Amino acid sequence: MELAAESGLKKPFAVIQPRKSLFQLDLGSVWRHREMLYFLVWRDVIVRYKQTVIGAAWVVVQPTITMIIFTLIFGKMAKIPSDGIPYPVFAFCALLPWSYFSQALARSSSSVVNSSNLVTKIYFPRLLIPLAASVAPVVDLFFSFIVLLALMAWFKITPTWGLLALPLFLGLAIMTALSVGLWASALNVKYRDVGSIIPFLIQVWMYASPVAYPVSMVPEKWRLLYSLNPMVAVIEGFRWAFLGKGSPDLTMMAVSTAVVMLLLFGGIVYFKKMEQTFADDI
Amino acid sequence: MGDVAIRAENLSKRYNIAKLKKRHTTLSEQLAETLKSVLHQNGRSGKSSETFMALNDVSFEIGQGEVVGIIGQNGAGKSTLLKILSRITEPTRGRAEVYGRVGSLLEVGTGFHPELTGRENIYLNGAIIGMKKEQISSRFDEIVEFAEIGKFLDVPVKRYSSGMYVRLGFAVAAHLEPEILLVDEVLAVGDAAFQKKCLDKIRNAAKNGQTVLFISHNMIAVNSLCQRVIWVKSGEIVEDGSSADVVRRYLTKSVQDRDLSEEVWDSAAEAPGNDMVRLRRVIVKHQDGRLFDPLSDPLTMQTPFRVEVEYWNLVPAAQLHITLHLYNAEQIIAFTTGNINTTAMPSGLLRSVCHFPGDLLNSGSHRFVVMVVKDTNCVIYSHESRVAFDILDVRERHGSWYGKEPGVVQPVLEWTTEYLGEDGARGQF
Fold this sequence. Notes:
heterodimer, A: mainly alpha, 14 helices, globular, disordered N terminus, B: alpha+beta, Rossmann fold, Coagulation Factor XIII, Chain A, domain 1, 2 domains, six-stranded mixed sheet, four-stranded antiparallel sheet
């Protein structure tokens, strides 16, 4: 009898049942599995640098070549203004967060489908998959960061104290990539053509962001609409942090951040709803 | 003790058949579909409501420290049950409470990355199956020793043989030591020595007070490891009781149920197998290719016959061969036979044929387990075939014994008897 009473009192380690509420997000389990997140990111980074022939050099070469092309086409031929900053520095400053973003978005969108062997065999919070995929490319950023500093030294531009705010904008970039990645990766499990839409989306998105041109070229009346794109705030933030030119427009920042928060929250809810059938649909 | 480890109440899982048949829809198809149904103003939208219950109202309780076997034929719902208990998929209805950390071994080497070395994969795989970093570090040497990978530790696992790969995967998993261990047919892969190691590890887990839930087609293993067995059929529990009783009744019943002369799967997606190999057909035929007719043209002890296995090889240049384990009605392995292959097979459909001579097997019902073997010694897939064949004894009897001869085989051997003379033997002494 005593034993029975005791076992009756004992709380289960886990209860398995159909999820009742749309907003039962269980984010605590993501925190408890943070070590696994670390290993997933670690795997992505190691594999990336092992597989590519020139390894680390690739992440520097790619944005550098893009920067050179942009400088020739947009800077020299189209004569797009760059707010008084040497065009190469102007472009590279934006390419830094942009290459991260496009990488992170591309990888996180396909992350769940690519992890089908894990999803069907092991339990862990599925949110870790797109999360790891959006965080891993941050490592690439570090290398191009050094290139940018070298480039700035060449053009004799001294970095400002604004650099201290860089993690803030980087955080915004990660959240933007993650929020879209959450939607796309969950959709991709069900609809496989989402995978082929993403590269196109990234391409369109780049022209909707101030990578090759300054925000000042966008007509004033369209600015608010323009800033619905969170990458506007991210890129403007990066330029300001490195070059100290044109302090960021706080309204635009607020709008961008609000958009990201909304997308992210919706993304988590949608992802959690879809994850219930990942193992069956994948 | 007497404490509960797992309590399942009315667990049910429903699958949509239409969804299972059609692997993936595309977003554009879905949009077109939605548009069509809006334009045609009918709410039905051609959606099929055909469903099937992979698990239907399953309830049971498992005490702490119990080792319970789950048996049943392919597709009975065993794996679905394990997937729900390990939280890989959600139940449609019902609930389960687990009291303790659950570790599941549904496959070994899950999450191994081919580009990473053995050492790196130990950490990665360990983290994926739920180990802490310190836990992995402190067991690292043990894991390496258990896996017997020796000097391959710092070699990318893509260079491993399939045997090494499986051993390393199991070695990591075996050191997880959860309070509740769920095991799904891991023992069907790997060589004999490795299988023994796995069994020992599970036996030790039980000794250490871990609760073990163990799916297997290997009745001998189930019988020796588990005190209790749950028999599942069509998503429901048929029987739940002491191993010896349940296993015996299951075997008797399944022999009766499975008088098929052929198993065929039309599409690779539905066929049993994995991402290396899928079965297409298992069939028993006359030596000349005719089918047996149990009434007019039965298989007798004298008739030579052949067993054909058709399978899709999904890995280009894999060295595959088929091994058959032939069982009689008493569940004794009469013998095993295989045609060890050391040439690389292209990917695609393969057929292996084994010719059985007449005057070999004893009479009675027979069935076999089909194993696909890679690299001459590593079982990559094992299928308990439902094809069963009855061998009739239609010999004319000259002696006084009319019953069935004992023994698994009844070969016709050559005998000679010589007369050695009236006192030929006496001279020896």
